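Everyone, carefully examine this protein record:
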Amino acid sequence: MKRFSPPSGLLHGEAGEERAAANRSGATAHRVVMLAYPDAQILDITGPLEVFSRTARWLRDEGRTQKLAYSVEIVAARAGPVRMSSGLELVARRSYRQARKIDTLMVSGGIGHANACEDAALIRWLQRQQPRVR
């Protein structure tokens, strides 16, 4: 069976080495948050989150970290189910307004993006997050 290996650049670089050293010492996980909205494409949400989740498990399993290096979370306008463009639902455990200490913030894509872009409160929140997140 072929083993998973993260892309070569994932573990390199000064900032990456500092984060890896902090994680080995028991520091908290890097928080990756995905903003979901109605009619988003489910793959745009689950795909990237699965990459972070799998990488966190690989790093721990290979002994590069003691704890999971990444935690992943879905947020939305309100906590609860969010219907995707496929008709399936994902569950946001909290509203984006309740999300704290975000390291990496991603915004999903999909046919619902036009409506999301018209949500003034959401746009203001994203603008406030911009200087603090990747």
In short: The two ends are 35 Å apart (CA to CA).
